[in-house]
Amino acid sequence: MLGAFAVGKTSLVQRFVNSIFSEKYQTTIGVKIDQKLVQTGDTEVNLMLWDIHGEDNYQKVKPSYIMGASGYFVVVDVTREETLGVGLNLQKMANEMSKGAPFIVLINKTDLPQSEWYISETSINELKDKGLEIILTSAKEGTGVEEAFSRLTELMINK
Amino acid sequence: MSDKDFINVLNKAQLSELRRIITGLDEEDLSRLNNLIKDPDAFSDHIIEFLPLSIKKLISSHQVTLDEITPFIEQAIQASIKANPQKFANILYPVMVPAIRKAVAEDIKRMLDSVSSSVDNSFSVKRIGWRLQSIFSGKSYGEIVLSHAFIYRVREVFLIHTETGLLLLDITDERGGLSNNADMVSSMLTAIKDFAQDSLNVDRSKSDLNTIQMGEYTIWIEPGPYAIVAAIIEGRPPEELKVILKEAIEAVHVNFDHELKTFDGDTDTFKKSERFLQSCIKQQEKEQKKKKPIASTLLLLILLSALGYWIYTSVDSNIRFNHFVKYAENQPGIVINKLEKQNGKHVVYALKDPLSENPYNYSGQFGFDSSNLQFKFKSYLSLEKEIILKRSSILLQAFNNESIHLSNGIIYLKGNFRQTEADSMKALLMHLPGIDSINFDSIVKNQPFRAVINKSVFNIEKYYFVFKYNTFKLDSSQKIKFTKLIKNIKNVYDFNFKNDSIPVIVVIAHTSRAGNAEGNKIVAFNRAKQFIDLMVAAGIPMETLVPTVSYKEEEKDAYPLRSVSFKVKFVKPEEL
Q1: pLDDT tens, position by position, B446-470
Q2: Distance between CA atoms of B545 and B531, rounded to whole angstroms?
Q3: Which of A1, A55, B108, B547 could be disulfide-bonded to B528 (CB atoms 3.0-4.6 Å)?
Q4: Ramachandran class of A115: left when φ > 0, alpha when ψ lies in -120 to 50, beta otherwise
């Protein structure tokens, strides 16, 4: 889970799994790990989710946390335009570290009124046109969460 | 000419010869080989003896490794089990049952040891400390006890893929893993390792996080090129354990090199590496100090001493009691019938002659009294010699016999007895059982009257006692003389005079006429009377004693002044 600070990465993971580690790991060592078993067709996949702290001016994502990843999410806050830029930068770094592992861009907090959205549907479509896989999610309402994890799992298996 | 044309021109014999030259086999050999190939049963029978040897040679020449064969064998076994589980169960039965029995026995033994150890330390300060530790740490008391019984224990070993941080294999000791979720712990461990390396900005290839200490647990991480082995250890592990971990990760890399390099998230392949990780599950028990069982030894000694004392006292008591019984049985007038023990007390049922000695009188010298000994007597009349003599003596108390003894039912009496006395004694004793007759052989027979009396009279009249002026007291020599006097008087008196006169003793006090003759006479008379009093006290009848005074007329008189002498006279009874 990659993304800017407070885009809702942890909330998305919490929607998906039950964690045994406290969130303070994120603020101390910068990552919190959770697990989820996902059934994709006949295959049961054990997902290890590395919920990496949000990047901001004060804290940078450690590349080593991405190294070895089989796939990743880039999470963006639909109400904060700058999070898209941060996310895309992180994706570049992740792409390099993970040797081209599959990823999905999650536009989160879509439960908020569209009037508050700073990332327009047009921008989203533009991104899709560039070949990025995008899913609109709401950690609060659970919209698109299961779908996102299932889709990423699928991509990782089929890679 | 083509080959075909050439063969066609050869006859059968030539063809056979040609075959023999080419193959080196004659027709018979070829026919046999042909049959062998055509018949699979025969062929398999034929090669069956070579196959094991071939496989053996293949393995020893390293053309085929065991690891390559193992999957086929495993698959074969799996298929066999799947097809017929019962058959496999039957095959394993002789192996499994003893193994299970052994395992159960081991577990029971361990549990007993643990319980024994727990009991040993139940009330010790150490034990209380452990209990407190258990309360504060939230661990079970048993866990705390076990942790103190070992120097170290490897509780769990992870094999983690370095690049992905994914858990390839996780094995635990018999108590089960410590981690709630090995997958997550393994990933987190990788994250922490990465974090440490990134934070310190060290060269990954040269530096690695290899130890994490958490209270009583230590995580040792042994890295390999593609995977790490991490062991969670309880206690203080020795350095040798690092070598074991190193060997394990090396073995994993040697055997799973390809799988590690091409790891795609499928961890099933690494289940086979369990045997390498299993070698890391080590533990070292603390040497249990052989505690000197002071308390139990002391208790044992006390018990043994008590037992010894009890045995000693019992034996001693029995020996003393037997001696006492033997002694009592030998006492005259006691017949012991039955011995019993009631409430720790010896009870003796016996017959007892009233004249026998009471056994309580001598039981004390054997250590028995009424507190530990009780007699239940029934009276009887003993005919034992001692008792007969005792009984006889009591009856003869009134008589002045010198000695008495018994032999063969005959009582022998010795002494000076008059016939009347002898008759009385005889009458008394003859009623007693156990006495057949009485022998008076030693009785001094009565002598002729004159001989006896004259001698005694002569003796009596020969005695005189001289007193100092104005005193009346016998000195020691006079007392002896007085006794002899009395004896002689009694001899005379004891004689049965029958029709003769009765003997009378005239006690003569001698004095003089010098000075006041009349006064002298009174003093002398009183002296005579005082002497008579002495004689009466010695058993001489008063009525046979007569005081008188005699004046000393001449110096040649036989009796000196202030003396008392005696004169025996015989008078008729009416003259008394």
Answers
A1: 545 566 678 888 889 999 999 888 7
A2: 10
A3: B547
A4: alpha
**What interface predicted TM-score (ipTM) does this complex get?**
0.72
Residue of A nearest to B196 (CA): A29
For B404, half-sphere exposure in the C-beta direction (CA atoms, 13 angstrom radius) is 24
Residue B506 burial (CB < 10 Å; 0-12/13-18/19+)?
A: middle
Q: Nearest-CA neighbor of B461 among B564, B571, B540, B566?
A: B566
The full set of domains in chain A, from first to last, is 2-158 (3.40.50.300)
Smallest CA-to-CA distance from B173 within B187, B155, B146 is with: B155
Asked if A48's CB is within 8 angstroms of B165's CB, the reply is yes
Structure tokens at B553: 């007329």
Q: Which residue segments constitute the domains of chain B, with CATH numbers given?
A: 3-83 (no CATH), 128-285 (3.30.450.70), 295-377 (no CATH), 385-438 (3.30.70), 449-575 (3.30.1330.60)
Over its C-alpha atoms, chain B yields an Rg (Å, rounded) of 66
Determine the distance in angstroms separating the CA of A76 from the nearest CA of chain B, rounded to an integer: 24
Q: Token pair for residue B185?
A: 């712990």
Q: What is the pLDDT of residue A77?
A: 92
CB of A50 less than 8 A from some CB of B = yes
Q: How many CB atoms lie within 10 A of CB B532?
A: 19
Parallel, antiparallel, or unpaired for β B217-223 and A134-136?
unpaired
The helix (run of H) or strand (run of E) holding residue B167 is strand B167-172
Give the separation between CA A101 and CA A94, rounded to whole angstroms: 8
